[in-house]
Amino acid sequence: MPVSDAETSLDAAIVARLKRTPDGLVAAIVQEHGTGEVLMLAWMDAEALHRTLTTGRATYWSRSRQEYWVKGATSGHHQSVRRVALDCDGDALLVTVEQTGAACHTGAHNCFSDELPVSALEAR
Amino acid sequence: MPVSDAETSLDAAIVARLKRTPDGLVAAIVQEHGTGEVLMLAWMDAEALHRTLTTGRATYWSRSRQEYWVKGATSGHHQSVRRVALDCDGDALLVTVEQTGAACHTGAHNCFSDELPVSALEAR
Q: Which residue ranges does the record assign to the Phosphoribosyl-AMP cyclohydrolase domain (chains A, B) (predicted)?
């Protein structure tokens, strides 16, 4: 499990603005600085956000491994954080990064290569 | 609650690729066609995705109201869907739209105006 709010060092005023999923997470949209390309979606709890804001290295909570991970720690594909913004209802973050190498574990530059058919487009 | 997988008309092959939160949802990142601006984050269950793909109008599941909502149904600020892509692990969608008016209920063009301090930037 992510650490509790009592254990995190994230500013309490920011913690109070987060609206989390039942498992304690907010969605982090990762966008590439300069190109505007949306690279991936990851998850943060309060502590991952604290680490991201204070180290400048994008740090997430892995839902599959149930642990913190610094992006690039094993792959070398780091994300240097330029800007973090919280959305109006507190359940999403927009993280603007400088991406080293590929953002996706498949080796693709971003994670959104699986296009779904929008059937309404055919009718236009 | 969102409708069950048995009740949705979404293609079973797509349903099988979705990795949902404990409350049955995937995150939908909404990006503006042309500008690349990230407008908002919303949530979809399988049925909301089905309606989005078949109508071309962005349709979400509201976590706060616990109901489906067609973006713009009350505000007039519709989103016409150009592309939908699923990410590599099935827990996020990237929805590319043509946005009419403001995407945010606050009247701002996007929902990410609440910038958080990245203290590491000061040390660079």
A: 40-112
CA distance B12 to B23: 19
pTM, two decimal places: 0.93
Instruction: For residue A116, tell me if it sits in a domain.
Output: no
Q: How many domains does chain B have?
A: 1
pLDDT at B123: 56
Q: Which of residues 41-60 of B touch A (CB under 8 A)?
A: 41, 49, 52-57
- Sequence letter at residue A95: V
pLDDT tens-digit series, residues B38-52:
999 999 999 999 999
Q: Does residue B7 belong to any structural domain of this protein? A: no
Strands (E), B1-124: 26-32, 38-44, 59-62, 67-70, 79-86, 92-99, 114-116
Do B89 and A117 lie within an 8 Å CB cutoff?
no
Of the candidates B36, B55, B113, which has its C-beta nearest A120's C-beta?
Answer: B55
